[in-house]
Amino acid sequence: MSDRVELKHLEMENQKYQFRYLRNQLNEKKLYRGDPRLLMYVYFHDGRKQAEIAKGLCVKPASLTVMLQRMEQAGLVNRKSDEQDQRVQRVYITELGRETSKKTVELFQKAVKGFFEGVSEEELAVYQGVLEKVKENVLRMLDETSGSETAEQESERTTCLSLQNI
Questions:
Q1: Is residue 76 domain-shared with residue 104, that is, in the same domain?
Q2: PANTHER family under this entry (predicted)?
């Protein structure tokens, strides 16, 4: 299959099915679409300011507030006013949130293992190399089309593209 358009469609279809599988598994944990990512962020960055979390996850503060309200009602996180500045809210994970996070990590690792079942280490290395080249091309294309981007916007965009900040 050398047709790049067909390959891109296959890649998108694969991602759709993988996300559907993960969403179905996570629905058993009563988590909404964006909640696992937020929960994992709080798990690894406990006590962060709500504004920092919004920036780190690249979501609007208002959207984050709604997500946090839902997760707070579910007993997964707590919000507390900052001791130095009462206007600032800090987000902390609860014991239930910690347990759910651990189960989510285990579920994700198990799913990824299943996704790549039967794929050799050599094939994975080639796949990783191809994905890295494609990522470089996409970032280059973004740079070319957004020439008026400031250094801060560039840094923020790159951070948002990376899941390493979780």
A1: yes
A2: TRANSCRIPTIONAL REGULATOR, MARR, TRANSCRIPTIONAL REPRESSOR OF EMRAB OPERON
For residues 78 and 25, membership in a common domain is answered with: yes
Are 108 and 130 part of one and the same domain? Answer: no
pTM of the full predicted structure? 0.69
Structure tokens at 61: 């503060």
Phi, psi of 111 (to 5 degrees): -65, -45
Nearest to 114 by CA among 8, 37, 18: 18
Specify whether 25 is located in the same domain as 65.
Answer: yes
Whether the Cβ atoms of residue 39 and residue 31 lie closer than 8 Å to each other = yes
Distance separating alpha carbons of residues 103 and 29, to the nearest angstrom? 9
Q: 89: which strand partners?
A: 81
Q: What's the domain range around 57?
A: 1-117
- Confidence at 25, pLDDT banded by 50, 70, 90: confident
Q: What angle, rounded to 10 degrees, do the helices at 35-44 and 95-115 form? A: 110
